[in-house]
Design goal:
Elements lengths: L3 E7 L2 E6 H16 L2 E2 L2 E2 L9 H32 L4 E7 L2 E6 L6 H30 L6 H24 L7 H10 L5 H25 L4 H26 L22 H11 L3 E5 L3 E6 L16 H4 L13 H11 L3 E5 L5 E6 H17 L23
Parallel strand pairs: 2-5
Antiparallel strand pairs: 1-2, 3-4, 5-6, 7-8, 9-10
Helix pairs in contact: 1-2, 2-3, 2-4, 3-4, 3-5, 5-6, 6-7
């Protein structure tokens, strides 16, 4: 949530505005204020019979209303997700629009389909209602600047919401159409395979957008969107593959049970020597039990000439996030992503430190499971190989 500030809560969901959103908001104020017509529809106040300050006032009001409808789009997704038991951490308005941060995406095709289509359907309804209201206001026959300005405002909101609904239905992650495509494919194949095929479509569209953006006189905004789509599609595939391959795996099976620890009274200089020797950037701090975590970034708090005087206890993090050995690995990954941490100390029911797990440990396990699937037909490594053994070799010939 760096660079974002909270503006309120709706349905119990915290609403944030990212600083990048302010840039796009000002851009839309300008676009609406100087815009003219598209396909016979007035999408700007350029020809409004009023001064520049009035046109920009209407442009600002239109931009605020339009982005309120984008928030409604994200709230529609979130409302459906909440009904399926998904927790929504927050909704953030940023330069590329709105993003609802969910703990997980429903994996059942029908649920994901309803959640994905709720947003575009909301935008479409808003667009149609706005056009109908525009027709009603235009039928009043008033020539006042206020009435004409409201008529144009409704036309802009209607036009862009219908455009938003259509754009979001493109079959490419992270747009809603990508999730609709995946939910359709998932009725015929596994969730992972459906994700990979949907991501392949998204990558193809992103490449096509870049080519079109270059050939059509270099369209930088379109190219930026294409790069964003490509990156987000890869991230969706990566997250899905990780979650699928960690199914049934616990933290105990991934963690390192030989843990380098430091004492709170260790000097920062000694800590740096340990880091140099072990080539690790973070350690549990132990003194009759786990009392903190210290990382390389924590050492930046200490001036160079005080490193031999300051202690680990002065810079360590006391509020330590831990994991139980039997916690599902996929849950541990979520915790690390939510807290933006790269390692988790593992403690048992008595509070005793029994291991540590890092993001790299999870990725290594995913690579091993993926490789094992390619060469084995009798089970996944480690946790269930004894439930279904390979056939015994034939007896020797006599």
């Amino acid at each position: 949530m760096n660079g974002s500030f909270r503006i309120g809560r709706i349905f119990g969901i915290p609403i944030y505005i990212n600083l990048s959103f302010l840039f796009i908001l000002l851009l839309f104020v300008w676009v609406f204020s100087v815009g003219d017509e598209v396909l016979g529809v007035r999408i700007g106040f350029l020809n409004l019979d009023a001064g520049a300050e009035v046109r920009y006032l209407f442009g600002g009001a239109t931009a605020v209303v339009f982005f309120a409808t984008i928030l409604a789009h994200e709230l529609a997704h979130s409302y459906v997700a909440i009904r399926y038991g998904v927790k929504i951490r927050h909704i953030t308005l940023m330069i590329f629009g709105g993003v609802a941060s969910m703990e997980e995406i429903p994996s059942k095709p029908g649920q994901e389909l309803k959640m994905a289509i709720a947003g575009p359907l909301t935008s479409l309804v808003i667009g149609i209602i706005s056009y109908l209201m525009m027709i009603v206001v235009g039928g009043l026959g008033s020539s006042s600047v206020e009435v004409e300005g409201i008529e144009i405002l409704l036309g802009i909101v209607g036009f862009y919401n219908i455009l938003l609904a259509g754009f979001n239905m493109l079959p490419a992650f992270p747009m809603d159409g990508g999730r609709v495509l995946r939910s359709f494919l998932a009725t015929r194949m596994s969730h992972v395979e459906a994700t990979k095929k949907a991501v392949a479509v998204a990558k193809g569209m992103a490449i096509a957008m870049v080519v079109f953006g270059v050939l059509a006189g270099f369209q930088p905004f379109l190219i930026i969107i294409a790069v964003f789509v490509y990156i987000m599609a890869k991230e969706e595939e990566r997250a899905t593959v990780i979650t699928a391959n960690l199914e049934g795996v616990t933290v105990r099976q991934v963690m390192a049970d030989v843990v380098q620890v430091v004492h709170p009274d260790t000097s920062v200089q000694q800590l740096m020597d340990v880091m140099l020797t072990t080539r690790s950037k973070g350690y549990p701090v132990v003194d009759n039990g786990l009392v903190g975590m210290v990382t390389l970034s924590d050492t930046n708090k200490v001036p160079k000439n005080e490193a031999h005087l300051r202690k680990v206890r002065d810079i360590m993090t006391v509020d330590v996030v831990t994991a139980a050995p039997e916690l599902p690995a996929a849950e541990a990954i979520k915790i690390m992503a939510q807290r933006d941490i790269s390692r988790l100390p593992v403690v048992d029911f008595s509070g005793r430190l029994v291991g540590i797990v890092t993001k790299k440990d999870f990725l290594k396990m995913v690579e091993i499971v993926e490789a094992r699937k390619k060469v084995s037909v009798w089970g996944r490594p480690g946790w269930d190989q004894f439930q279904q053994r390979p056939p015994a070799p034939p007896p020797p010939q006599t």
